[in-house]
Amino acid sequence: MKRFLASWPLGLGALALVAFSQHASSQQLPPPDKCKNEIVFGTTLSLTGAFSTLADSWKRMTEAFQEEYNKDGGVTLKGCGGKKVPIKFVIYDDQSVPATAVALYERLATVDKVDLFVGPDWSSHGFPVSQVFERYQIPSVMSNVATPNVYERGFKYIAGMALHAKTWSQNYFNMVQAQTPKPKTVFWVVHDNLVTKTIFSLHKDVAEKAGIKTVGEDTFAGTTKDFTGVILKIKAAKPDIVFISAFDGVSVPLVQQMRQLKVTAMDVHHIMANGSMARQVNLDGVTGEIYWHEGIKGPYADLTNRVLTKANIKVFDYLWTGGRTDAYLLMLQAIERVGELDRDKIAAELRKPGAVWQRPGGDFKLDAGGLSEIVAFTHQMQGGQPVVVWPPEQATGKVQWPSPSWQ
Questions:
Q1: HSE-up (13 A, CA, CB side) for residue 134
Q2: Which ranges of 218-342 does DSSP label H, i.e. alpha helix?
Q3: Considering 39, 288, 312, 348, which has the largest number of Cβ atoms within 10 A of its Cβ?
């Protein structure tokens, strides 16, 4: 039976676990049977709290993944006579709180005695929780933990499926350089958040190398409601591109006020433009990043489509769902390549230099720290629907340039 806590209060017991996690040295638990008849994954999801708007559907998605994957028998263990064994998830709600996530992964390791981990999500969780993985020497494929610093600490038991911060908008800048007329200037609007500031700082250099000059930048707090000041700066600078590096919800009033004050540009780009935003503000003509889209065909695309259909999830509504499903797929590929449930061998397999892995968006590799080097697809809202416009070989439509709705 899957375990799910709708609420895990961070009381004395959880605080004790957090304290333990901060001071305990490496502690390897007894290894599981390498040829056991079921493989159990432990994970937390942000089903409540600040990140729940991004992830509150992922419990039913994970259950659908378990059901669909097991229909064919499960994971093939070639080192155990080639038998197939089903998978099972033990799920807890981390309430979008890093300290709660730490306590829960401690519990999954010591009380639930799971075989392997998948998750957590978000860079704020990845920093502290990855120490739990290293302490107990239980590998995990984290999802949507995009900040490179998480992976640059020499840890051996972590890998990550996320849009890499340094390549987040790589396809976008490749696309704009191929357009006529070519953009020459950009104004950056940045949400004061670790991930969004990292993406901005890395891509400012990318834009400069592409010959796109920065004519302004402004950082705003997540509580900001009145964007008149920054919009006046944008209008005065007259940039060809307005690049918004921000989470979706906090920037809805920004886009609304840009429409009201008639900002013009060749393109307005939002790194997290999604269905939630589109239901609140006119995103027509806005470009953005998408992890994967149902129209893109690749390895495991049929399985992923079945899972999302069963869970009633559209990728555009839950932009980072692909990071979750791909984390499951990466861990399962590593197990099958090793051929048995050996934690150390699985961890080593995930860190094998030059290894090529598969996801619905195509083949990919992990960098030296274990973070996926995938690049997001660029989409544009056209007629109320997201259309993948770059790269051309996987596009589902053509970009409208300059964006007609921002003229």
A1: 18
A2: 228-237, 252-260, 275-278, 301-311, 321-338
A3: 288
In contact, 367 and 159? CB cutoff 8 Å: no
Nearest CA among 244, 245, 248 for reference residue 268: 244
For the record, the structure tokens of 187 come out as: 């104004």
Q: In this structure, which amino acid lies at residue 102?
A: V
| Alpha-carbon gap, residue 138 to 31, rounded angstroms | 9
pTM for the model stands at 0.84
Distances (CA, A) of 215 to 196, 205, 290: 19, 13, 27
Tokens of 185: 């200037």
Mean pLDDT for the chain overall: 91
**From 22-31, 170-179, 365-374, the region with the lowest mean pLDDT:** 22-31
Task: Clarify whether residues 300 and 401 are in a common domain.
Answer: no
Count of beta carbons in the 10 Å neighbourhood of residue 305: 15
CATH code for the domain in which residue 190 is found: 3.40.50.2300
Residue 26 has pLDDT above 80, yes or no: no
